[in-house]
Amino acid sequence: MTKIKEITDFLEEIAPLHYQESYDNAGLIFGDQNAEVTGVLISLDLTEEVLEEAIEINCNLVISHHPIIFRGIKKFTGYYVDRVVAKAIKNDIAIYAIHTNLDNVLDNGVNGKIAEKIGLEDLEVLNANLNLSDDGRVGSGVLGRLAKPLAYHSFMDHLKKSMELQVIKHTELLDGEVKRVAICGGSGSFLLNAAIGADADVFITADFKYHEYFDADRKIVIMDIGHYESERFTINLLHDLLNEKFRKFAPRCTKVNTNPVKFY
Predict the structure, then answer these.
(1) Which residues pair with 62 in a beta bridge?
(2) Which superfamily is assigned to 104-225 in CATH?
(3) What is the fold of 4-100+232-253?
(4) Cα separation of 195 and 124, whole Å?
(5) Residues near 217 by Cβ (< 8 Å), separated by ≥ 6?
(6) Residues of CATH 3.40.1390.30 domain(s) within the chain?
(7) Predicted pLDDT of residue 264
(8) pLDDT at residue 249 above 90?
(9) How far lies 81's CA from each of 43, 50, 87, in Å?
(10) Can you tell me whether residue 220 is helix, strand or coil?
């Protein structure tokens, strides 16, 4: 049988825990690392519905991209985080998060998966952290190029199709074509200047605030595709990695849409 530690060790070979940001809480949040795995469920977020699904299909390990706990829990008062953690403990379901450490790797990382979906080539880290790796393959965001330049409207059609989007929030379109594309899954406004400095035509990310859109300043086109929408394929990324490595069980992708943002 496979133990939880074997799975977490494998994931941390791909995305070491020391690659995570200081505010983050990646790693084994709850559970016995020496417990045998009955099944693995992969999700973007950990909710009560995801845990119910894990119980139903006999998975005692849930791997989520976003940690359910960012800060210490001092009281259990019925907040949704408290309820999720209590349910996991009651049902002996281990919780593991692989968050900004997976964001910060180019190989088999969140942004590389987005680039793959869009069809970008010649990938490099947008804002490399040389303190973590001298080869420049660790850091925030990804920069790549399209095999064939596209007009901005054509690129947005391509982006909506490849990322299965309902809507794209964007700044004013510019003249010319889209050749170089910068990406940051999740909240990426902090990388706007890096994207401009890299001569990207487009910056694809999420969670821009109203006044931050002005900072594009006709130097780049911001395309805000939504937090969940930008990272949803992380589930498939993790599934494929685990499925290739471990043959004694079949990891499952959640059927629960955990996106808290709805469109009318």
Answers:
(1) 41, 95
(2) NIF3 (NGG1p interacting factor 3)-like (3.40.1390.30)
(3) 3.40.1390
(4) 12
(5) none
(6) 4-100+232-253, 104-225
(7) 87
(8) no
(9) 16, 13, 10
(10) coil
